[in-house]
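ESCALATION

Customer reports they have been waiting on this structure for their group meeting. Please prioritize. Original submission:
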Amino acid sequence: MVVVYLHGFASSPQSSKATFFAERFGAAGITFVCPDLNQPAFAALTISRMLDDLEKRISSLPPSEVVLIGSSLGGFVAVEAAGRQAGDARHPITRLILLAPAVELEWDRWSEIGPGGVEGWRQAGAVDVYHYGLDRHERLGFNFYQDAAQYEPASHRLTQPLLIFQGRQDESVSPAIVERFSQHQAASTLHLLDDTHQLKNSLDFIWRETARFLGLRP
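Update from on-call: job pushed to the front of the queue and completed.
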């Protein structure tokens, strides 16, 4: 088993949750991979590029079942990848763990795009985004929005078992959307937590349930 962690928007492999999981899976002797989805340039980021990069990364791994962990926008990518089975016969995606998954991109909640909203972004061609992983502002082209419009992860009906964690006080992802998505999956367990989008107060619980889900010792 290989665990592939997909970080969120304007985040990085050095995020607190990525580091948390890297330490836990490392201690359990499980191969843990966290690709940098910002590369080669955040300004040209698109969902399509993230999916292509993920597929290449999975294909480069030794043959093994793949577990995807997706955080926020990484959850969007994880569901899309599982829906189109981004792995091949040597790398089947067998289970998903989703943390506050942005299965619908609620643009009215995206404070990053500024007071002009999507239309202002369209007219300017790019917007300044504070990148938490880089600790600075970065430009993001409008092509991100245009490309994302072709994907609808919330409409996928997956056959893989899913374990989902969602904060009730999430300021970025609507809990109702995640609940609805979970209800339409063949095998999904949803934990609604008294937490915000970052889920930082729930990490120990998340790890215990994740370990149980994967048959590991917590």
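Sent to customer with the following note: The chain has a mean pLDDT of 94.
Escalation resolved.
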